[in-house]
Design goal:
Elements lengths: L1 H17 L22 E7 L2 E7 L2 H12 L6 E8 L12 E3 L5 E3 L10 H6 L1 H7 L1 E2 L5 E7 L2
Antiparallel strand pairs: 1-2, 1-7, 3-4, 3-5, 3-6
Amino acid sequence: MKRRARAAHWVCLLAGLVGAASLGGCGSDAVGADPSLQGGILVTFAVGSERFRVWIVNPATIDDVFDLQTGASLANIPNAAIRTGAGDGAHNAPWSWHLDAQDVEMADATIEVCDGSPSYVEEHLQDYLQIGRYCPWGARLVAVDDRR
C-alpha cells in the first residue's frame, strides 16, 4: 500500500510540474498539502492548465476567498509578496516559490508586471523577486481547504 501511495504522490507531483490538468487523487490532500499546516486556508488556483497553492492566514483575505467561492465577489486574483521556497509545509510544491501567507489579498484588477503563469514565474523567479509580487490575471479558484 505504501508503494501505491508513493506512486500516486509522484504522479501528482509530475502533473503539477508539467502543468497538467487535475488527475484523480491529486486533490487538496495530495502533494503540497502537508497536514501540519493549521490556522489558515490552503487555496488552489489554476492559471490555464497549471496550478499553484496559496497558504492564507489573513482573516480578511480568508473571508474574501469564501466570498469568491460563493459568487459574492469577483475578486479572483491573488496578489501578494512572492518568496523563495515552496512555503510552509512545502504547500506550493513543486514550485520553488510561494506567496506570503499574511500579505495575500484578492483583487479584481492588478498591474500587468506581476502577471504570469506559475511556470513563467518559475523560469523568471529572480525577476519576480525584484518586482516583489505575483498577481496572475487569469487565476481561477479551484479548491479551498479550511484548516482553521
